[in-house]
Amino acid sequence: MLRIGREKVCYELSSRLKPVAFVKPGETVVLETDDSRTGRLKRPEDVLTSVPEPRNGNPMVNPATGPLYIRGAEPGDALTVDILDIKLGSQGYLLAKKGVGLLGDTVRETTAWIIPVTEGQARFSHQISLPIRPMIGVIGTAPAGVPVPTMYVGDTGGNMDNPRITTGTRVFLPVQVPGALLVLGDVHGMMGDGELNGTALEMPAEVVIRIGLIKGQEMALPYLETADLMITTGYGSNFFDAARQAVREMAVRLIDAHNLNWEEAGMLLSAAGNLRICQSFGGPEVTVRLEFPKIQTTGE
Ligand code: CA
Ligand code: CA
Q1: What is the distance in A from the centroid of ligand 1 to the CA of 59?
Q2: What average pLDDT does the chain have?
Q3: Per-residue pLDDT tens for 83-111?
Q4: 228-293, CATH topology level
Q5: pTM for the structure as a whole
Q6: 137 C-alpha vs ligand 2 centroid, how far in Å?
Q7: pLDDT band at 300, cuts 50/70/90?
Q8: Which ligand is nearest to the CA of 159?
Q9: What are the Cα distances from residue 16, in Å, to 42, 44, 54, 155, 171?
Q10: Domain boundaries in the chain?
Q11: Would you state the pLDDT for residue 263?
Q12: Which of 6, 45, 159, 193 lies in the 20 to 30 Å Cα band around 235?
């Protein structure tokens, strides 16, 4: 099985990057990923010395492994990425930073909390352990236009911080450049909706994925499917812009799949759609997801 080391790192979704490997649709790949500070924060006292340096005006935060060139992928196709497994490293960290997140005004000094992860539990203290919920923060393909740094998100993905991107999920991504140029990183041991204090449980990991390609299926934004759910995504500088994107995307899917009109789609979404915040304080953008149950269509 093809394995890509975590030293094959990039900090943007971009058509100008050289692929680190060429992959055929149907292939399974293991990607080693680094934590959001590229392995430089191992002890609480590293918190200030591990602050990411800027490159091209953007801090080198959220290293992503890749890009992978997918053979046969062309603009106007859709890439599918099945998340088969996420193996976490043995420890991660959380951060409290002045002015960041909803409790940012209470932070006296920037603090890192190192969290050992053993036997499926994140060990916050002797009293506090919580079961891990591994997820992928950054996943995306290269945009045709201006590169998107991995601390941001765009129409082809990036720092989506969507907790549903986990084992068993299929991620659909737009292809805008030849080869798609897939990148993946910023794995979290767990992250609550909203990423309220600005960072999740940031960890190195090994992610096993299977790549697929759907020819001629143009997509506007990333989309997910789990066993039970269809999940559209949205992003923007504020909650309402992000939410409107995700809601419209889902409405279009329901209209196409079930021959509804817009009014019916809206009413159905009101009845059964769950709009959820993904990340609102960990980056400069708000990201959201809209979950709708998969409908089992019955014959006449
Ligand atoms: Ca993130
Ligand atoms: Ca992160």
Answers
A1: 13
A2: 95
A3: 999 999 999 999 999 999 989 999 999 99
A4: Endonuclease I-creI (3.10.28)
A5: 0.96
A6: 6
A7: low
A8: 1
A9: 32, 36, 18, 17, 23
A10: 2-216, 228-293
A11: 98
A12: 6
Check whether domain 2-216 has CATH 3.40.449.10, yes or no: no
Per-residue pLDDT at 127 exceeds 90:
yes
Q: d(Cα 166, Cα 85) in Å, to the nearest integer?
A: 8
Q: 107 CA to middle of ligand 2, Å?
A: 19
Among all bound ligands, the one having the nearest atom to the CA of 162 is 1
Residue 6 has pLDDT above 90, yes or no: yes
**Amino acid in the structure at residue 139:** I
Residues 6+ positions from 92 with CB-CB distance below 8 Å: 35, 114, 115, 117, 122, 188, 189, 201, 202, 203
The bound ligand whose nearest atom lies closest to the alpha carbon of 283 is: 1
Q: What digits encode the pLDDT tens for the residues 140-177?
A: 999 999 999 999 999 999 999 999 999 999 999 999 99
The torsion angle over the Cα atoms of residues 233, 101, 95 and 36, rounded to 10 degrees, is: 30
DSSP readout, 216-251? T---SS-EEE-SSEEEEEEEESSHHHHHHHHHHHHH
